[in-house]
């Protein structure tokens, strides 16, 4: 999608003038140079275009300058996004007759790195045309599509700076590269079956294995993927056994959005997200229960092909249909697609990694010989009633840019959190947030983290950046920060709020809440449901949710019975309620020695309150993955769920919830309908958060509120709180492009560190 932020300056009709135009934004690797060259040739102006460290420089002269400027916007390349165009008057170069594409200036500082792009329509037409030289070629690309971020070693974006440098162009590709009217003119990623990358096994073998119910590992754009037929329960069970995720949901790939609608309900916004160039996994309400794919949930992750490889798999599975109309038709074919990694490892990017991690678990390992410079998982977004928002950034949204128009930023390297980690760099007037790097709880993931950190520093040529890190001293990321004045510790929940402020360019005073599972407080205590007044980036901690004894520390997130037991004791539940824990020895120990409860550290964590409510409502005690019980609790309120009349009673069930959380837990105990109880708890939590924010907004006389933290990925809670605050006259801001969970922490760290650095400089100036 092209964004026109301001018009290119219109020049006077003086017979001969020369100007320089500096284009900033998403302007490298999108076919900008060929586009401008063809326009200049058509209008008869001279000059040149080149990539440089700031974006793209165009110098142009001639009597047709007005026409050049007017027509420039008419047909910009589809991936282009111009954020700024600066004009400078230059002296005319006497005797210059031609317009050329000049050699790029050496640069290691990308202005707006481009993500990997799915095949364009014209490439798809060639891919399935038996007379085309690109027929069935999985590495097809042109100036408007193909890999970008995953193959880039350094900038500017030229072939020599990518892993395509290993593949010299054949004579036919060279001719296309040099032909001004060809869409592959000056396209840096092009190749063909004669000169380009290739797979080490025929894709027909992959298709045959999937058709036979097998599980395959194949190297895609950002790394290896595990793929099987979504209609084969035995294959799905094998995948789950290997990844040690018997419950955690899996995503499917369908041919197109019409096919996806056989599985999920898509809104207009969801359909647009699914088909966007980012091609994310979209979490949407499922049409039917999916016991094999998403146990205990009423939503499902779906995506459509993001590479020629995926389209070729559907082509083979569909029986090799003729033409291209089948690409738009609804298809029953669906594939389970999961990141190709063993438990505790990041996505495998090389054949060696794939053989070591995956070979013993799959029927076939298929790789190619194009090096993946930047391994990257698929991004994830979620559909809600009021639009879609990010859950995880990845392929398609890697190194996502957040402009900061207020002031020029000092150079910052923000190291992120421990879970769902990302890295953010502040350079110039923007923040750049890395792809999802996962939970840093294993040696392999920490090695990948270090590699990405080094690569991003190299991209931007950082040498003396201020380091921002979490306040928690035991986080791996915090331990990567140097000692001394070149590093600053940022409180976890301050960073959550600041990430939303960065995304929405907020500097005015506001109130905010950060609700999640855990964060290291200013005095080392466990935070997780914190309210703030923020003025000029100074945070005042003004309120918090009701405290709950944290039994077992971090284990509580996977053992929700601990939070449920603590909540029941606070609610003074009767013996008949407490007996549900009789089969848990440690729970009996707590009940026999209640003083242990008083010694447990308190936490206001919204995540633990959700765990407590979910364990009581779902009547289960153990979770397989972090956040499982809150997801299942929210799933009960899916308006498209499959349980009939009870579903329609969910809204009425919580007509008068208690907004004191201990009393709210007491209200749940006599309820017999899980759906009604889930509705009551969500309404009570939303009331609690909303009332506190509204009260603080009145005290501090502000009209803006920020909702932050991982619990705000819960669509029901997010929408209910937003609605209540809007009714009270507050303008509400939530994370949209950057995930609200810990994946956004690094962005918040970078913004606050930049402010603290500016503040320190201003103090020195005054001194």
TrEMBL record:
Residues 200-396 form the YrdC-like domain. GO terms for biological process: protein maturation. Coiled coil: none annotated. One of its GO terms (molecular function) is ligase activity. Residues 18-103 form the Acylphosphatase-like domain. Its EC number is 3.6.1.7. Keywords: Hydrolase, Ligase, Metal-binding, Zinc, Zinc-finger. It is an enzyme of class 3 (hydrolase). Pathway: Protein modification; [NiFe] hydrogenase maturation. The active site is at 33, 51. InterPro entries: Acylphosphatase-like_dom, Acylphosphatase-like_dom_sf, Acylphosphatase_CS, Carbamoyltrans_HypF-like, Carbamoyltransferase_HypF, DHBP_synth_RibB-like_a/b_dom, HypF_C, HypF_C_2. The keyword Transport does not apply. PANTHER family: CARBAMOYLTRANSFERASE (PTHR42959), CARBAMOYLTRANSFERASE HYPF (PTHR42959:SF1). Belongs to the carbamoyltransferase HypF family. NCBIfam families: hypF. This is acylphosphatase.
């Amino acid at each position: 999608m092209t964004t026109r932020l301001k018009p290119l300056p219109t020049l006077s009709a003086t017979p001969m003038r020369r100007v320089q135009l500096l284009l900033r934004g998403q302007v490298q690797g999108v076919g900008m140079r060929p586009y401008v060259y063809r326009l200049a040739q058509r209008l008869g102006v001279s000059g040149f275009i080149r990539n440089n460290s700031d974006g793209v420089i165009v110098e142009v002269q001639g009597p047709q300058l007005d026409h050049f400027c007017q027509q420039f916007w008419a047909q910009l390349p589809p991936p282009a996004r111009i954020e700024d165009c600066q004009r400078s008057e230059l002296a005319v170069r006497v005797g210059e007759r031609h317009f050329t594409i000049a050699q790029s200036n050496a640069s290691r500082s990308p202005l707006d790195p481009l993500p990997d792009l799915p095949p364009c329509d014209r490439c798809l037409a060639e891919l399935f045309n038996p007379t085309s030289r690109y027929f069935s070629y999985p590495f097809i690309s042109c100036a408007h599509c193909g890999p970008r971020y995953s193959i880039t070693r350094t900038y500017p974006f030229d072939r020599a700076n990518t892993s395509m440098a290993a593949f010299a162009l054949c004579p036919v590709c060279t001719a296309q590269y040099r032909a001004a009217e060809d869409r592959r003119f000056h396209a840096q990623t092009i190749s063909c079956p004669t000169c380009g990358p290739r797979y080490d096994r025929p894709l027909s073998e992959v298709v045959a294995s999937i058709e036979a119910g097998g599980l395959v590992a194949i190297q895609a754009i950002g790394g290896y993927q595990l793929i099987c037929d979504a209609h084969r329960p035995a294959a799905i069970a094998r995948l789950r056994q290997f990844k040690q995720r018997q419950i955690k949901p899996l995503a499917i790939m369908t041919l197109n959005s019409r096919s996806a609608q056989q599985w999920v309900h898509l809104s207009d916004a969801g359909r647009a997200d699914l088909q966007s160039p980012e091609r994310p996994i979209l979490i949407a309400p499922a049409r039917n229960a999916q016991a094999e794919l998403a146990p205990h949930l009423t939503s499902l992750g779906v995506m459509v092909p993001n590479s020629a490889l995926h389209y070729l798999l559907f082509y083979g599975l569909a029986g090799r249909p003729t033409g291209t109309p089948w690409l738009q038709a609804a298809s029953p074919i669906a594939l389970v697609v999961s990141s190709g990694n063993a438990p505790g490892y990041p996505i495998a990017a090389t054949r060696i990694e794939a053989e070591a991690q995956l070979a013993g678990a799959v029927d076939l390992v298929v790789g190619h010989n194009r090096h993946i410079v930047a391994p990257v998982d698929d991004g994830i977004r979620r559909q809600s009633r009021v639009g879609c928002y990010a859950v995880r950034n990845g392929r398609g949204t890697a190194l996502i840019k957040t402009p900061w128009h207020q002031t020029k930023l000092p150079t910052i390297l923000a190291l992120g959190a421990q879970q769902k980690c990302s890295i953010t760099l502040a350079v110039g007037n923007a923040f750049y947030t890395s792809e999802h790097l996962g939970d840093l709880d294993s040696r392999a993931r920490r090695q990948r983290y270090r590699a990405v950190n080094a690569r991003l520093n190299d991209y931007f040529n950082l040498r003396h950046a201020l380091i921002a890190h979490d306040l928690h001293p035991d986080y791996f990321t915090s331990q990567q920060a140097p000692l001394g004045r070149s590093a600053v510790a940022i409180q976890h929940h301050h960073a959550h709020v600041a990430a939303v402020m960065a995304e929405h360019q907020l500097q005015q005073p506001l109130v905010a809440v950060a609700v999640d599972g855990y964060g290291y407080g200013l005095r080392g205590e466990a935070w997780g449901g914190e309210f703030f007044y923020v003025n000029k980036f100074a945070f005042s901690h003004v309120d918090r949710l009701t405290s709950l004894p944290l039994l077992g520390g971090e284990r509580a997130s996977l053992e929700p019975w601990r939070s449920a037991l603590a909540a029941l004791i606070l609610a003074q539940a009767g013996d008949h309620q407490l007996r549900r824990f009789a089969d848990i020895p440690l729970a009996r120990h707590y009940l026999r020695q209640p003083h242990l409860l008083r010694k447990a550290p308190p936490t206001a964590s919204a995540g633990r309150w959700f765990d407590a409510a979910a364990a009581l409502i779902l009547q289960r005690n153990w979770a397989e993955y972090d956040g499982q019980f809150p997801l299942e609790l929210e799933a009960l309120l899916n308006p498209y769920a499959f349980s009939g009349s009870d579903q329609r009673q969910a809204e009425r069930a919580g007509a008068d919830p208690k907004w004191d959380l201990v009393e709210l837990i007491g209200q749940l105990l006599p309820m017999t309908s899980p759906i009604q109880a889930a509705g009551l708890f969500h309404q009570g939590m939303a009331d609690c958060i909303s009332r506190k924010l509204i009260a603080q907004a009145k005290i501090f006389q502000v009209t803006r509120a920020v909702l932050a933290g991982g619990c705000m990925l819960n669509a029901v809670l997010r929408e209910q709180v937003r609605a209540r605050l809007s009714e009270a006259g507050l303008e509400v801001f939530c994370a949209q492009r950057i995930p609200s969970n810990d994946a956004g922490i690094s962005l918040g760290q970078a913004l606050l560190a930049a402010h603290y650095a500016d503040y320190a400089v201003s103090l020195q100036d005054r001194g």
